[in-house]
Specification:
Blueprint: E1 2-12, H1 38-42, E2 63-64, E3 69-77, E4 85-100, E5 115-125, E6 131-133, E7 139-142, E8 149-150, E9 164-166, E10 171-180, E11 186-189, E12 201-204
Parallel strand pairs: 2-12
Antiparallel strand pairs: 1-3, 3-4, 4-5, 5-10, 6-9, 7-8, 7-11, 11-12
Amino acid sequence: MRAYIRRAVVPAVVLSVVLLTGCGGSDSDEGAAPEKSAAAETAVDEPAQEPSEEAHTPIPGPNVGIGSRVTFSVGETGEDGEDYKVTTKMDVRVLDVKYMTPAELDTTNEPEHGQYLTLTLMLENVGDAPAKITTYGMMKWQDADHAEQDATTLESVGGPALDRTYAPGQSVIGALVLDVAAKGGTVSYYGTNDPSGEPAFVVNLPSE
């Protein structure tokens, strides 16, 4: 069976302090327990932001900004690539976005596109079956002046990896280091060979 990610359109608005939930586990690909951080303890859910006006085309998929969250479906198809079915659901919360220099990232590598940023997310399996999440090669950036392009990098700020298998109830907070052409715009997450061809969710980035 091949696993796929499919978007869902269920924004959640909770005016309360974000609490980490989930089962215990290791920092392996087979799931991890939630880890508290200052960002997670102070993050407050807000209504999902509207798509950036700078985007040169309307972007499908649930839009989410800093402090808000959406839920998306995880599914699979048969061996022939047909008969897609949803197997579980994941919740994603955007906790922080920071634009960084190579020095701040403690790397000698210059960004290929022009600007590094760290995107801190909390991912939680809110469904009833395991979900394998892969972000590398699946994060695409665009703005009004630039067509969609791969934003993933091999850079890291340490901490738990978001790419892993999540058992039901498990959650992880982790940061992705992305490479974008400019500040602002949007970053879209695409599941592997998503049969819908649309992103599972879209993060609206701040312009500063």
